[in-house]
Amino acid sequence: MPFKALQIGPVWRADRPQKGRFRQFLQCDMDILGESTILAEIDTIITTIEILSKIFKDTKVSDITIHLNDRRFLTAAASFAGFIEADFSSVLITLDKNDKIGWIGVKDELIKLGYDSQKVVMFTKLFEDIEDGITIDEFCYKLGDSIPTIKVIEDLKSILEVITKLTEVSAKIIFDPTLVRGMGYYTGPIFECSLSELSSSVAGGGRYDKMIGKFSGGTDVSACGFSIGFERIITILNDLGFSPEFNKEKMAILVNKKISTQRLTEVFASANLLRSEKIVSVLPMRKNIKFQIEMLEKDGYSLFDKIFK
Q1: Helix ranges, the chain (H)
Q2: End-to-end Cα distance, the chain
Q3: Cis peptide before 2 (omega within 30 of 0)
Q4: What angle do CA 173, 229, 156 make, to 5 degrees?
Q5: pLDDT tens across 157-198, in order?
Q6: Which domain holds residue 162?
Q7: Assigned domain for 163 exists
Q8: Which of 239, 260, 277 corresponds to the end of one domain?
């Protein structure tokens, strides 16, 4: 320990499908288990910035912003407004919708859920008038005696300071007290990554120290992770009109389905030799070869070989 994992795999969620957001999708995960200090947060955030910087290096996207908050600031805000602990999850899930339904919508939904209107107004007022660039200390001042512990505050400041001072990090990191990340399993710092001129986030994560214990007989393990949405990245790149440049020429070998096994062996042997210099695909020959070649040309193929027998 700590155990560091990088993985890409399919995941599922109950959701309304929309652009860049599907019920089944590929998720690129990085997690650090067994590290209870903010070293995990810093390491994870820096890695994510590096990955996204490389992906969007040759596009019009230039500004990467990490939004940072802590779930304990959010629960402190709920407590300050008079909500009890049993209400926290529902209240924060509703708060997370502010970018979609606005602050009026958040208030209306909380009141419809049966919460006292005075508490609702007191709670949303903490966030409604927040300006860009608000500091951790300024937000803590709004919370009065309900502020989190000194360690929580100092840890969040340290994460901000370290990332900000790393000159090789091509991104900015800001304290964003409105960041919620609706999943209730987060226990500490949470973060999301946004890109310039794009409204939705492309990555998100945080600390989830209690989750593993729920599935391992109650033994809690410190955990921190970040996830990058593969389809979200691809959607953004497509919208930007970006396609990767291939240094190698693309060649298609179109093979008649009736050729002998011996001839097919020779074709693949030849293709393997060519692959040291070119991107080579061996494909079944269609009836309309002219149309097939036109489609392949649109996909970047410039060289063709037709094997009839």
Answers
A1: 39-55, 71-80, 88-95, 98-112, 117-128, 136-143, 150-165, 211-214, 230-239, 261-274, 289-298
A2: 59
A3: yes
A4: 25
A5: 999 988 888 756 678 889 999 899 877 789 999 999 988 766
A6: 3-239
A7: yes
A8: 239
